[in-house]
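Cast an eye over my tokenised protein here and flag anything odd:

===
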Amino acid sequence: MTSHKIKCRKISRGHVTGSVIISQEPLSFLGGADPQTGNITDREHDLYQQNISGKILVIPSGKGSTVGSYVIFQMAKNKTAPLAIIALEAEAIIATGAIMASIPMVDQPEEDVLEILKEGDRVEVDADHGIIKLKK
């Protein structure tokens, strides 16, 4: 098995492997994700009605109210949170939520992960060392 490595910046520590779910749009967790189910509830979002629980969420960035951090934290408590988050550019709300919830998170990948990764790809997120590995 070979792997493609992409360097990135650590936001929240941790090391996990899982399947990716990809959005081309920023995500607001407040009003955009159901903390009870992990489903995306924002009717205007490209992941509408999809479940992000236990998956590696790949997004351009987050958006929305500061309460979004607490939604991420509640999702972790409910075991409905993403396994990890990869963002092109982390913003304070999602970064804070990931740190509070102990969800591995990275941003600023050296390559465009929105172009490289495909839905369902197996990816290793090593936030401790700032590396994303695409498993082939």
